[in-house]
Amino acid sequence: MEDKTSFDEIEKFKMFSSLGETDDRQVLASYLTEIARGHQPDIRNSEFSDMALGYKFIIDDILETPGLKDSIHRHASLRDHVVKELITHIENIAETTSEPPQIDRQRKRLSLPFGMRSGNANGDKGRSTKGMMSKLIESVRKMLGGKTQQKQDDLKKKLSDNATKFDKSQHLISQLMDHLGLGFEKAKGKWQSTGFDVLTRYERLLEDEEMLKELVELLGRYASAELEEEKEQLEEISIQPFRRTFTHGKESLIGVHESDDLSQILPTEAALLGNEDTELIFYKKFVEHKLQTFELKAEERPPVKEEGKKSQKVSTKEDVAGPVILCIDTSASMLGKPEQIAKTLCFAIMKMALENKRECILFSFGATEDEIEKIDLSNLREGLEPLIHFLSMSFSAGTNAGPALHAAIDQMQQPNYKMADLILITDGKIPELSTDILHKLRKAQSKDSRFYAVTFGAENAPELKPFDLVWKYRASKKESLAEFARKIKKLKRKK
């Protein structure tokens, strides 16, 4: 079921709320609609009843919370969230307060949200914004008082904190999008469609700013290692200049012959043009291709390759980019540094998959089938939710790779996941695989699927022997990321 937008909530408030009279709800709904659109509301205080104006001042007080108004100007999604909270808040006040908040007529000369005054016709001119806000806060406190005022303060703090977290999350996730090659502009557009509600469903992401920062830092180091690895590859390829033959090339003089090549005529032939009596002779010889001209020959030298150096291979075989299935261990033993490394390596594989337009799906595993999560990372091209879901994954389950491998191998039976590469990322502390799993694994291998494992443990787990290749990642070694970058390139296969 889709979340309702703030506009849906405003319409519901206008039609069905028990707050005030119909006219009161109408003017408040119009006011909230302009805020939801990101506009400066152009509604005078005189258009509100005393009671409706009281609720307007409550709304204004919240929107003037430091750090909130700038954020909701920038982010439509956050603005949508704030307007929903405002509707809930004023309806709660209406239901729990015996007397509705009201504003005296002389107080109708206070400000609109975002620092815009609304009572121009009532003599506001010349008052400072700071003074107006002091009067606004004073009026709201007099209206509310007690527990209701505490709820007002709590909501202001909550919305301010959410705005701060949202800004930081957007900045850090935009950096991660850049690492995936999706770019800031695409990330910016996706934020509008992903929404604050998605982030609140994955609260850990809003709360764990340090985790995101560490991941961005690790990915930056991976990107540097990747560039270094590419540089080393280029240095291993020796390219020696060579001469190429062109039909118009002229390098060595070998004699004189007859032609119509004016660029190579002998001076004696050119002299014919200097005399009217011989000019016609020149034209006749030119037409007949009998001008005396220098004969030149171009030199040709074939490419020379140095012995003992790598040379690039050109294959006539068609590239086949199979889908990628990631299985990531989310057991409690992966908490901390292993979690950051696991997510970094996953990012590197996701980037490769996106660049090569390969399907990519992730299975996280714990101790039981109920702890398996499936995330289709191919959908990152359409929205940010899979990425946010992935970043918010909790590493606190048990350890049993069996159910996840069962699910992953079953995925390989789907038509669009044939010849898939499965990559298991774990600290190596996994129980022995069942006979049924091993049978399914070998059957998939016989159909050209390949199985890889990346481990962080001191020793390779014997349970991983059936895999085609096991890569050991050692965080203590600087070259580990560069080595992983080289391994990633081997995932590209040929027919």
Number of helices: 18
Spell out the CATH superfamily of the largest domain: von Willebrand factor, type A domain
CATH-defined architecture of the largest domain: 3-Layer(aba) Sandwich
Order of helices and strands: HHHHHHHHHHHEHHEEEHEEHHEHEEHE
Averaging pLDDT over every residue, what do you get?
A: 75
| Widest beta sheet: strand line-up | 6-5-4-7-8-9
Stretches with pLDDT under 50, minimum 5 residues? 105-127, 242-248, 305-319
Count of individual beta strands: 10
What is the share of helical residues? Answer: 40-55%
Number of domains: 3
CATH class annotation of the largest domain: Alpha Beta
**Overall form:** flat
Give the helix/strand class. Answer: alpha/beta
Question: How is the main sheet built?
Answer: 6 strands, mixed
How would you sum up this structure, described in words?
The chain has 18 helices and 10 strands. The strands form 3 sheets. Strands 6-5-4-7-8-9 form a 6-stranded mixed sheet, with helices on both faces. Strands 1-2 form a two-stranded antiparallel ribbon. Strands 3-10 form a two-stranded antiparallel sheet. The protein has helices at residues 6-16, 22-36, 50-63, 68-74, 76-96, 129-144, 146-179, 184-194, 196-201, 203-207, 209-236, 267-271, 276-287, 337-355, 385-391, 401-411, 435-446, 480-489, and strands at 252-259, 291-297, 319-320, 324-329, 360-365, 373-376, 421-426, 450-455, 469-472, 493-494. It is flat and about 120 Å long. The chain is α/β, with parallel strands linked by helices. Helices cover 49% and strands 10% of the residues. The chain has 3 domains: 6-168, no CATH class; 252-297, no CATH class; 319-494, von Willebrand factor, type A domain (Rossmann fold). The two termini are 44 Å apart.
